[in-house]
Amino acid sequence: MQKSFVPNKAKKTYCLKGKREINRREFLKYSCRLTILASLGFGFYEKSNLKTEYLQIGFPNLPGSFDGYRICQISDLHSSFWVKKDYLMEVVGKVNDLKCDLVVITGDIITGAVNEFWKRWVPVSKIDYLSNVIDVLKNLKVENKMAVLGNHDQWDGKKTELRLVNELQGIGINVLRNHSVKLTRDN
Known about the structure:
- The chain has helices spanning 24-47, 85-97, 116-121, 129-137, 158-170; strands at 5-8, 13-16, 21-23, 71-74, 102-106, 144-148, 174-175.
- By secondary structure, the protein is of the alpha/beta class.
- The longest helix is centred in the N-terminal third of the chain and has 24 residues, at 24-47.
């Protein structure tokens, strides 16, 4: 028996042959859910696609001591149910291979789940993703490390945000919060 959607024009419902009928609202609701799941599936596929881009930037008034200075930017680590520790270790390994002078982490280090939507859809886990990412980031072999927080780092509230800041600072990552740091370099 071949299954297909058959519109029932009299009731404005749809059904699989031999299955219960669903109305237009339910059909759209299930279609929307399927689209979201497909998007998440694509995200799972793309998350393991690490890219390294090399940019050479020149500033006319930059001191000569910064000639050849290498900065590595890490962004959107999103330590969470979806992003496991082995992937984060792969990121840190690639950063260490680049032998840069400064690492900057530009936000979304963890993924908080403050809203009810994510709490409903993300499996409950006893894994502490904040500790996971700290365990990984302490393997950075670069002396100078800085970070700023992103919106996802703040989703679980002030307590988690402050814990993240304290733990980053505890492993030698300077977290910039409403201040700046002047870089110097001696040759």
